[in-house]
Amino acid sequence: MKRPPLRILDLCGGPEQRGAAHGRTHATDIRAYLDERMQLVTSGLWSGGPMSAGAIIELAETMLPAHEAHNADLFAEMSAMAGSAGITPAEAIVVGGFTDFVDTVRAVVGGEHPASVIEDDCTAFIVPNDRAEGGMGLFAQTWDMHDTATDHVVLLRVAPTEGPSAIVFTTVGALGQIGMNELGVCVGINNLTATDGVAGVTWPQVVRAALLCETADEARDVILDADLAGGHNYSVFDAEGAGWNIEGMPSVRPVTKLGADALVHTNHTLSPETQAVQGQRTGVLQDSSIKRLKIAREFLDDDGLGVEDMMKLTRTPTVCQIAVEPYHIESSGGAVMRPSTRDFWAVWGLPSENDYERIEFL
To answer: FRET partner for 279 with CA separation of 20 to 30 A, picked from 84, 105, 134, 334?
Structure first.
């Protein structure tokens, strides 16, 4: 289904100003998205058994200190967003950091990760400078989620009073999911299912903290040093061509350096350390992740790859997910970044049916 152009929200000033603008602009949408995610946990779909709304919020409240300790300004932005949207900071953790939050839920209550609601099917890839057109490396990915999430996609253009400006692909109520800053540092993600969740900091704040960095090496260290709540794979890349992949679990974080070939990651762990703390995956979903990894690696085994190639790969069948029973996973959008020229393109909805838009920094 063809969708309208991306919704773009400009967030300027200090953390309270940025958060208030986010919450005020999308208050109704944020509350609706929160209701959807609360229902997934209260019903037991994500927790392995029914869980009361009160218990959910109590658990989210235990994670607030980790967020504030991790980055006080970003915590203030999230809290101001919550206040303007009419929700609490704990509820902001549920709506914004849901896939990490449920890793924490399952670690606390001992529940399994039901296959019917897995939302972890992004495909991310970094093309090194030497394999890219004009020697200008590229980062790109689809952002895949349960199809009800697509309507909540929004693009943020962030211009803080301190630190670099950034363009951030995300959903309403979340600080950030994929992005590039004005210095050319790119950050992307794939969800991973962790069995070692803790009451730590959720991934949207980690992404935004990494986007405050000047280099990919610095962004890598921000991710490695964070008290992660749950499992995500993080890919970082910069204008000088440095790149890293981090399979970030709360207890282990193996790192892979970008070399001569493209770095590709989907939704299953590739390292023995992370495989040891990965939640069980159904055959169908594991097969999808393996297929997407193979398709992307084969596609990117070439020289002179350009922006149009990145867009084509995000539109390729299987990589571009179309919602079907029983999982209802679809590619809710995509992003392509060329950090050496500070160019950022994004699409809302299925890349195969919609047009990428070039986004300017504020």
So the answer is: 334
> Nearest 5°: phi and psi at 347?
-135, 145
pTM here is 0.95
**Amino acid letter, 177:** Q
Whether 296 and 125 have beta carbons less than 8 Å apart is answered as yes
- Which of 109, 135, 167 is the last residue before a domain boundary? 109
Banded pLDDT at 32 (limits 50, 70, 90): very high
Query: How many contiguous H segments (helices) and E segments (strands) does the chain have?
Result: 12, 14
Distance CA 332, CA 322 (A): 9
Given a cut of 60, is residue 232 above it in pLDDT?
Answer: yes
Mean pLDDT across the chain: 93
Here the CATH number for the domain that contains residue 184 is: 3.60.60.10
Q: Following CA atoms 56, 57, 58, 60 in sequence, which dihedral angle do they give, to the nearest 10 degrees? A: 90
Count Cβ atoms within 10 A of the Cβ of residue 1 and give its class: 0-12 exposed, 13-18 middle, 19 or more buried. exposed
* Residue 278, domain extent: 117-359
pLDDT of residue 231: 95
> Alpha-carbon distance 236 to 187, whole Å?
5
